[in-house]
Hints:
Blueprint: H1 9-24, H2 35-55, E1 60-64, H3 68-84, H4 91-114, H5 122-149, H6 168-182, H7 191-211, H8 214-231, H9 243-265, H10 268-285, H11 300-317, H12 328-331, H13 341-344, H14 356-389, H15 393-412, H16 422-437, E2 444-448, H17 450-485, H18 489-496, H19 513-523, H20 527-540, H21 545-557, H22 561-574, H23 579-591, H24 595-602, H25 612-638, H26 642-651, H27 654-663, H28 668-681
Antiparallel strand pairs: 1-2
Helix pairs in contact: 1-2, 1-5, 2-4, 2-17, 3-4, 3-14, 4-16, 4-17, 5-6, 5-7, 6-7, 6-8, 6-15, 6-16, 8-9, 8-15, 11-14, 14-15, 15-16, 17-18, 18-19, 19-20, 20-21, 21-22, 22-23, 23-24, 23-25, 24-25, 25-28, 27-28
Amino acid sequence: MITGKSLNIPLLFIMIAVFVLMPGLYSQQTTDPGYSLRFILLCLIPIMFFLRSLFGKRKHEFNFFGSKILLFLIPAQVIWMLFSILQSVNQGEAFVEVLRIAMMLTLMGLTIYSFQNAWKPAVFTWFSLIAIAIFSGFGLYQILLQLRDAASESGVLFYAVSSSLANKNFFAEALVLLIPFSLFTYGATSSIVRLAMFLCCVLALVWIFALQSVGAFFGVISALLVWLIFYKPFSVGEAQLNRRKFIKAALILSVIITILLVSYSNSGIREGASRKFELAYAYFENPDLIYSSNEFNNNSVYERILAYSNSLKLFCENPSLGSGLNNWKLLQGQFGIGGTKHLNTGVVQFEHPHNDYLLILAEQGIPGLLIFLLFYFFLLREVKLKLRLCTDNSSRAILSACAAVLTAFLVMSFFSYPRMRIFSYVLVMIASATILALPGTRSYQIKWHRIYSMLLLLVSMFALYLSYTRFKSEVISQKIQLAQLSRNYGNVIRYMKHTKADLFPLTDAVTPLSWYEGVAYFNFGKTQEALESFKSASYVHPWHPRVLQDLATAYSHLGMNDSAMFYYRKAMKVIPQCQDCILNLSATYYNNGEIENALNEISRFKRENIVVSNQADYNAFLKAILHANAESILNHHLKADSGLFIKLTENFGLEKIFYESLESNEEFSKCLIREAELFRGK
């Protein structure tokens, strides 16, 4: 066991940075309030360590208590991600993601080194309580703002409570991972430490249930169950293990789990989960619903099915290597994402499949997922092996708590993406480091040379520069979006000159920044400049429906109808029922003299599904297209004069004939000829 009377300075620095500073980082200047700031802090931690190592006189070496396979899997994650960059659309952005993971693993190594000296497990309980208190403070402040502004007549809207994180799910997931750290000191004799541990668990659980995050709920249940199972003795004598404390822990956790299950049955989580199971069963019974466009699909289950399906299709295109790092959000759209009115507008973009395993599989292929899974499999295996050797309650509680952190993380990864968040993944790295720092059957002494510190210092400083650049880019990105909302297109163009679009070309909503520039130029009447911006945006995001549609519109305005039709059709591959695309493509066919194609395209509309904003354009386009088609058909088939055409139009109405042809599933030309012959016969 690694314990002692004092806490060493390096570990204290890590604890303060992770459990005090990270939760408190928050900026309203960015769309994601704390991500970039936490990324900056993540890079600063190793820089401070390596500077101390370079200028210190002490020789650095530490023991790695774990399997050699883990020593291989740690760098293998970064190496394979670097290989995946070769296929990335935006390689600069993908490289920053590799550096983020590299900084995470570096932090894990530094934590292992810091654990080599004496430390007290009680610090984890205290720091966990501090972190939970900070997150709770932000959450309570947001609740008070709602109450002040009377945001809801029915009470507090907990879905809008995100603390210093981006949304309620990230908030709940962070709390789930903090609970096991408070259990490091289970069995402590100090009553004040036990009180702190109790406060950690209760406060976190209250928030988790208030936030009603399904993934967090399953995560906390699995964490508590795993802690209970792993804390159970394997082969330790009664004299060495206080069984009374184990029985007490089992009873307490059983009560907590029972309360959670009862609360689940009486909470909105149960109703939400039941509704999702009902929807999933409906899609299972009638798979055709998935491929239809109706308001029944206006639910999160349908969106998950779309995301999962597109992930598997993307994986099948290149199962061995994957599609490339950070490419899921850019390439999955080619398989279609429509199905409801709001999805058919093209405004909503998926940035993640809400399943980390599918994301890794799609982007990094089978090898990437295997490396990820094997890393955590061997970590949990180390926990089991070390528990067999434990002769004290303290080490057993620590190892069991670390296993609980990893299990909760792996469970929540089925529902969300904690790996992509800074704070949650940092907690996972600290738990992993704790496992590898506690003595076991195998030990490898690692000697640390100054050259290693120098190289990693340079890497960390480069990562710091990029993380700061990302922060500035997020600030400018938010300014650009706000300027467009207020129709201040001059500011949009001005702000674009200060972006790092080569490294961070997308907003948090997966929209290219150059698209905003194109919209601004288009509104100023500078169609050629708008075209160049839209083309740049299409390179950054090749399957963004709004980008493709606006690029096609720019080509159409410049008289390049063939290019316009190509990009309209490409946009409709993403959203087959995109009404704007259907209208614009039919108009382009009409302007290009392809009257029959224009009619076929506009025939895809269903009158009951036309949105109000498109109704006027639809009526005008349909009238012009029908008149042109009718005149051509009557002249060609009946050799009719213009008088017959005018009388037929006035007496019957081409729109009426058109809608009758749709209802009878008959060609418009046949219906028109039949009506014309009847009318002429009279």
